[in-house]
């Protein structure tokens, strides 16, 4: 089972918080993945196709509980993709037109409702139910261990923007992308995806992605520290090589025996320990010296070498 299917299965078990939540959820499922057919004089039929059993189960359950409509189900198997496709048909029935008006799918005398039916999403709980239905019908969520994102595919720009408005009311700022005649409402932020999942009722999934995020954060922190340590080591190695070259020049131009004791100690310790940092080298001095003190020894040695070189040139 894909990660998306697992989330939808969890959502299919979420109960509405008020009697109207079921209508909001069924309305969204029908609107997003249903196809409405019209044969004149109030004769309508609906076909809903989905690859997720949880969506088909929820659609049939709500349709029977709320309207007692006939809902023949056909299950088709794809040998190529090894998947199932569920086709739910709601044939022409006497009360179907009234039911579609109640669900906000139709406006009597005006045809298909272009946006979200406002009266079905007046309560916050119904907004959560509506978004839950929309995600179940057209949603996708990537495995959080990879390139994490969530999207809901819908048709109609007005509907898409109104659905985004509902999501904003739930604390989530989604983005919209037009895609081959349809629209994808998408999120990429871990925080916003977790907020939306909790709002829809997928608390188990929300907790799971939060755990994944913590692991990712820990790995990223470890990687940053390792990279910083490697960079520090590279800088220390480069600096040590420059110091060894400086010591070699000092030996040629001045002679190590002629150097002040502190500088001679530095030169000898650096040659004995070419791989350690200045701070570590200072700890091997007698008495122990700080990193700053060791750095000043390098600068002092450099000045002496430059002065000696200038004198020789004259």
TrEMBL record:
Residues 21-94 form the Sporulation transcription regulator WhiA N-terminal domain. One of its GO terms (molecular function) is DNA binding. Keywords: Cell cycle, Cell division, DNA-binding. It holds the Pfam family HTH_WhiA. It comes from the Bacteria. GO terms for biological process: cell division; regulation of sporulation. Residues 222-304 form the Sporulation regulator WhiA C-terminal domain. Residues 128-218 form the WhiA LAGLIDADG-like domain. Belongs to the WhiA family. Involved in cell division and chromosome segregation. This is Probable cell division protein WhiA. It comes from Parafannyhessea umbonata.
């Amino acid at each position: 089972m894909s990660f998306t299917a697992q989330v939808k299965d969890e959502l299919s078990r979420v109960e509405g918080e008020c009697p109207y939540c079921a209508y909001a959820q069924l309305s969204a499922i029908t609107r997003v993945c249903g196809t409405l057919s019209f044969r004149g004089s109030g004769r309508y039929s609906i076909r809903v196709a989905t690859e997720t059993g949880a969506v088909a189960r929820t659609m049939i359950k709500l349709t029977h509980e709320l309207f007692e409509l006939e809902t023949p189900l056909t299950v088709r198997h794809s040998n190529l993709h090894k998947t199932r496709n569920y086709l739910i048909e709601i044939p022409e029935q006497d009360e179907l037109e009234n039911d579609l008006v109640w669900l906000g799918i139709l406006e009597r005398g005006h045809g298909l409702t272009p946006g979200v039916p406002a009266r079905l999403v007046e309560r916050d709980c119904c907004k959560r139910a509506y978004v839950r239905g929309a995600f179940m019908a057209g949603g996708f969520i990537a495995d959080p261990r990879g390139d994490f994102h969530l999207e809901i595919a819908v048709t109609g720009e007005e509907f898409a923007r109104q659905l985004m408005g509902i999501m904003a009311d739930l604390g989530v700022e989604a983005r919209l992308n037009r895609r081959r005649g349809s629209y994808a409402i998408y999120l990429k932020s871990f925080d916003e995806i977790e907020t939306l999942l909790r709002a829809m009722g997928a608390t188990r999934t929300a907790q799971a992605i939060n755990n994944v995020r913590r692991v990712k954060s820990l790995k990223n922190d470890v990687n940053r520290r390792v990279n910083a340590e490697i960079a520090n080591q590279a800088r220390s190695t480069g600096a040590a090589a420059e110091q060894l070259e400086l010591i070699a020049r000092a030996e040629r131009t001045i002679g190590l025996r002629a150097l002040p004791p502190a500088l001679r100690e530095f030169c000898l310790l650096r040659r004995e320990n070419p791989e350690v940092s200045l701070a570590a080298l200072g700890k091997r001095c007698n008495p122990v010296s700080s990193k700053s003190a060791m750095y000043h020894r390098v600068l002092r040695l450099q000045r002496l070498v430059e002065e000696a070189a200038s004198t020789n040139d004259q």
